[in-house]
C-alpha cells in the first residue's frame, strides 16, 4: 500500500507525541515502585477505566473480531465469551472491591493477606509470579503476531511481518519501560480518543457504502440473527466457499455446545478473579475499593460502541466488495487479513492515517499494559523479597527496566514461532486461563483452602496448559477446559486436605478486611465473637442478580453498534431499550449500594 503524505504525517505525529509523553512523565514514574507500577494510587478512577478499555482495544484482538464478524455475523457477539469478556461484570459488581481492600501491589503479594507468611504462602507467591510471567510472554507474542500482519499490509517498504513487528516493538518499549504506569495510562487515554474517532468514522463510511439489500445478497440466511440453535447452520456455499472451511477449522459447527462451554468456563474463570495482568494492576492502582468497582464498570460502558462500529463496518465492507476476490482465492485466504485489506480499499486519505495511528495505539495499549504489569511480580515478589531487600527505589526501578526488556525478547521469540493470532489467542484464553480457574475460585470462597492447596492447584493447572498443545494437539483448547479444571481441583483439594489449615489469625484478618461471601462459616463466627458489631457480607443473591443483569447489559452494548452499522433499526432500538432498563437496574441495585 502507498500511503499519502497526509497519512504518513498523521502516523509520525502520533508516534512522536506518545514517545514525548512517555519520556516527559518518566521522572514522576521513577520515584519509587508504587509510582512506577501503580501510579502512586493517585490516578482518577475514570482515567484508569479509559486506560483499561484502551488496553483491551488491541489490534490482534480487533483483527480476530473482524474475522469472526465476517464469518459468523451477529452471532460473533457471543464469541468474546471465550476470554471471557463478561469477567468485567464480575469485577464491577463485587470482585474489584474485594481485591482493592487488600491494599497490595501485585497478585502475588495478595497471597500474604490470604495465606500469611509461611512456606506455603511463599510457594503460592512463586507460582503466581511464574503464571504472571508466562501469561505476559503469551500476550506479548499475541501482540507481536497481530502488529506484524497489520504493518506488512500498510507500510510501503517490502519487509516481512516479523521485521515490522520488531521495529514497532522497539519504539513502543522505549516509552513503556521508561514511563511506567503514569506513561501507560496517559498515553492510553490519548490512544483511546484517536481510536474512537477513527472507529466511529469507519462505521459511518460502511453505513454510507453498504445498503441492507447489498448485505443480504452477500451473506447466508441467518447471518444477521443474534440467537442460535444447537448447530450453527450458516452455509456460505456459492457466496464464499472458503468460509465453510474456516468454520470447520474453528470447531464452531456445534455452536450451541461451544457457547455453553464458554459460559461454563467463563463463569468459573470470572469468579476466580482477574489473572495477574494489567487488569489487576489497574484495580490495585485505584484510590479506593469503590473507585475500583466504578473503574471496572466504565470499561464496558466506553469500549464496545466504538470498537464494534469499526468491527461491523470493516466486516460488511469486506463482505460486499471483497467477497468475489476472497472466493477466487479459495482456501488460501487468511481471514485475519480482512481488517487491513478493508482499510486499504475503503478508508479515504487522511482518515487512513488516523485509523492506522489508532490501531497502532490499540497495539501499544495492550502491549504497554502487559509489559508494565508483569515486571512488578518479579521485582516486588522475588528480587526485593529474596535477593535485594534493602536496595533503594532506583535500584528496583532499574531492575524493572531489565525484566521488561527480557520479557519482550522472550515474547518476540515466541511470536516468531507462531503461525496465527487465533492459535495464541485460543491457548491464552482457553488453556492458560482455564488452568488458573480452580485454585483462584477456591481462594475467595472456601475458608479451609490453604496455601499448599493453592500452590498445587495452580501448578497442576499451569502444567496442564503447557502440556496440552503437545499431548493433545488436535483438541480445541476450549473443549479441554473441563480436563484442566479437573487437574486444578485435584491439586487444590489434595494439597489442602493433606496439610493443616491456615492460622485463625490470618483467616480472621482476611475475612474481616475483604468481607467475601462463600463457605466462611467457622471464620465468620470467630470474627463475630471478637467483634460483636461486625457485619458479614450477605449480598450473594444481590451480587449474582446484578451479574446476570450486567451480562445482558454488556451483550446489548456489543450488539447495538452492529445493528446500527447494518441498519437494522428496530433491532438497534430494542438493544438500546435493553441498555436503558438494565442500566437503571444496575444504578439502583449496584452503584447506589457500593460501600464507601
Order of helical and strand elements: HHHHHHHHHHHHHHHHHHHHHHH
- Tell me the number of strands: 0
State the helicity in percent bands: over 70%
Poorly predicted runs of 5 or more residues: none
Number of helices: 23
Instruction: Using the alpha-carbon principal axes, give the shape.
Output: globular
Overall pLDDT: 82
- How would a crystallographer describe the biggest sheet? none
The secondary structure category is mainly alpha
| Strand composition percent | under 5%
Ends distance: 54 Å
Q: Radius of gyration, rounded?
A: 24 Å
Protein name: Sodium/glucose cotransporter
Organism: Paraglaciecola mesophila
Catalytic activity: L-proline(in) + Na(+)(in) = L-proline(out) + Na(+)(out)
InterPro entries: Na/Glc_symporter_sf, Na/solute_symporter, Sodium:Solute_Symporter
